[in-house]
Design a protein that fits this description.
15 helices; globular; mainly alpha
């Protein structure tokens, strides 16, 4: 973050607005991943202003996608969709097909959260094929992670497990820590869905340690949710309930409305199960 802040200062001294815009976008990405959504929005907005002064549609597309991600974290799905769609329109105008596919992937993840996993699966598979054909390995891995998320929502557990196995080598080769952790997290969920609680537990504990060490709050919160689900699977419902209460409070305090809502939903589900039993 310090290096990026220095870059912003340097680009401003050179009156390089494109450089300023992209450096601020990257600062926003760092802030969002560390869990400071307020700072992320501020960086994105400042970067967008600089890009608009240069009418740099490509840079604006990057920033709008980042804004969409932050809005999704916050739980504002309608606003996130609007930001993604505006970014997609710009990327199509500039002929940036790979970046357009990346934005379509973001829209597909939003569709999953809206309960349209089957529709998302179709688009994700198309993006995955494009990334594979273009030899964009990290984008291909990202789309495979999204595909596993869609398949798990559709209860296609065996297909999700096959996708996991098919992409283990791709994940191992990636130098992108965030992608590797996202792959481990969705892999743990796949293990949990098929009843392999031992593998799920090992992966989740490892992911949680790495997320905390890397100050990646979003991944940390998602992993805590999965660990609570694991405890429910093991019959530790009271402990899971306590974890979910704490997780909801932490997520809301940090502005992560989406994960807070998931924790609340899981908590209510746990309460019903305890009452029935």
């Amino acid at each position: 973050a310090r290096a990026l802040s220095a870059a912003v200062t340097s680009f401003r001294e050179q009156d390089d607005k494109d450089g300023v815009a992209l450096a601020l976008y990257n600062l926003g990405e760092v802030a969002r991943r560390r869990g400071d959504l307020k700072q992320a929005f501020a960086d994105y907005e400042e970067g967008k202003t600089a890009a608009q002064e240069m009418t740099d549609k490509s840079a604006i597309g990057y920033i709008l996608t980042g804004v969409g991600d932050a809005l999704l974290d916050r739980g504002d799905l309608d606003a996130a969709r609007k930001s993604y769609e505006e970014a997609l329109s710009l990327r199509k105008q500039t002929g940036e097909l790979q970046l357009a596919a990346e934005t379509e992937l973001s829209l597909s993840r939003l569709a999953i959260e809206e309960g349209h996993a089957a529709d998302a699966e179709t688009v994700i598979r198309k993006c995955n094929e494009q990334f594979h054909h273009e030899n964009q390995s990290d984008d291909e891995l990202d789309s495979s992670i999204a595909l596993m998320e869609a398949l798990l929502r559709e209860s296609k557990f065996e297909t999700a497990e096959k996708e996991r196995k098919d992409n283990q080598a791709l994940a191992a080769k990636s130098v992108n820590q965030l992608l590797r952790l996202q792959f481990d997290l969705v892999s743990a969920r796949a293990h949990l869905a098929t009843g392999d609680v031992t593998s799920a537990s090992m992966l989740l504990q490892r992911t949680l340690r790495s997320a905390r060490a890397g100050h990646l709050l979003g991944i940390e919160l998602e992993t805590q949710l999965a660990l609570a689900e694991l405890k429910k699977k093991l019959g530790q419902r009271v402990e899971a309930q306590a974890d979910l209460v704490a997780l909801e409070k932490l997520a809301r305090g940090k502005g992560f409305g989406l994960i807070a809502g998931k924790a609340l939903s899981a908590r209510n589900s746990s309460t019903k199960e305890i009452s029935v039993n």
